[in-house]
Amino acid sequence: MFPAHQQPQIRAQLSLVLEGIMCQSLLQTISGKGRAMIMEILIPNPAVRNLIREDKIHQVYSSMQSGQEKFGMQTFNQALATAYFQKQISLEVALQRSSNQDELQEMINRGAGLTNRGGTPGSTMARGATPTKG
To answer: What is the pLDDT of residue 116?
Structure first.
């Protein structure tokens, strides 16, 4: 923890040097014969950098949600929903791993904004994972 008088300076420095943040988890596939890689990705675009500088961290999540197509960002829930729609993971596994189950369930119910954009981390299977057919 930095002293209060240094926190604005530290936030400014962090906003300038941050290259990206990735959080990944390997989840059991539906087939049980491999793992599906689920990734949350934050790309520090100018808006995100400004939110960090201005100590508005609580708004970063919504920037991630809206920056999916243009910047390649995705929330963990977006990645979980994509893997579920691609039949990589079960609904039960997706809901168990979500930190916001209501949001994930709503995404799945409406199926909006989730496409198979081949090559994106949310749709990539980890080594050894076997895709299921269906």
So the answer is: 43
- CA nearest to 73, candidates 111, 118, 39, 119: 39
Can you tell me the distance from the alpha carbon of 121 to that of 23, in angstroms, rounded to the nearest whole number? 11
> Can you give the residue ranges of every domain in the chain?
4-110
In terms of Cβ atoms closer than 10 Å to its own Cβ (0-12, 13-18, 19+), residue 44 is buried
Positions in the chain short of pLDDT 70: 112-134
**CATH classification code of 4-110:** 3.40.50.300
Specify the pLDDT at position 1: 84
Residue 115: what pLDDT?
A: 47
Place of tokens 């809206």: 66
N-to-C CA span, the chain: 50
* Cα separation values, 96 from 28, 87, 101, 105, Å: 12, 16, 8, 11
